């Protein structure tokens, strides 16, 4: 994969249920704390180096943001860092929240 791909909430939920992917949320810390997808990891400039060091590049990663726009740039960045499979969550957390329950932080 030389470029990230898009993934919809239904497919993402299926993969998350199977434990087949890692989910990172790039929204601001306050938004993440107020609510996020279960098992999501908050990813920011402060912890990106740690994430890159400790995550196997063959592990599929889904990137979530507010509406599915910023996640595309972050997903492409992860591809450039050597991740083999990276997906941007279409519609972001806003779309996810309409269809699925979320965990409050």
UniProtKB/TrEMBL annotation:
Keyword tags: Cytoplasm, Transferase
Domain Rhodanese: 17-101
Active site: 65
EC number: 2.8.1.1
Catalytic reaction equation(s): thiosulfate + hydrogen cyanide = thiocyanate + sulfite + 2 H(+); thiosulfate + [thioredoxin]-dithiol = [thioredoxin]-disulfide + hydrogen sulfide + sulfite + 2 H(+)
Superkingdom, natural source: Bacteria
Classification via SUPFAM superfamilies: Rhodanese/Cell cycle control phosphatase
InterPro entries: GlpE_sulfurtransferase, Rhodanese-like_dom, Rhodanese-like_dom_sf, Thiosulf_sulfurTrfase
NCBIfam families: PRK00162.1
UniProt similarity note: Belongs to the GlpE family.
Alphabetized PANTHER family for the sequence: FAD-DEPENDENT OXIDOREDUCTASE, THIOSULFATE SULFURTRANSFERASE GLPE
HAMAP family: Thiosulf_sulfurtr
Entry protein name: Thiosulfate sulfurtransferase GlpE
Species name: Bowmanella dokdonensis
Gene: glpE
């Amino acid at each position: 994969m030389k470029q990230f791909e898009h993934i919809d909430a239904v497919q993402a939920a299926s993969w998350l249920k199977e434990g087949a992917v890692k989910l990172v949320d790039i929204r601001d810390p306050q938004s993440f704390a107020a609510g996020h997808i279960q098992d999501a990891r908050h990813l920011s400039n402060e912890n990106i180096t740690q994430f890159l060091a400790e995550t196997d590049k063959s592990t599929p990663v889904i990137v979530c943001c507010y509406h599915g726009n910023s996640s595309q740039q972050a997903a492409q960045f992860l591809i450039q860092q050597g991740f083999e499979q990276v997906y941007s969550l279409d519609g972001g957390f806003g779309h996810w929240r309409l269809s699925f329950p979320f965990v409050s932080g």
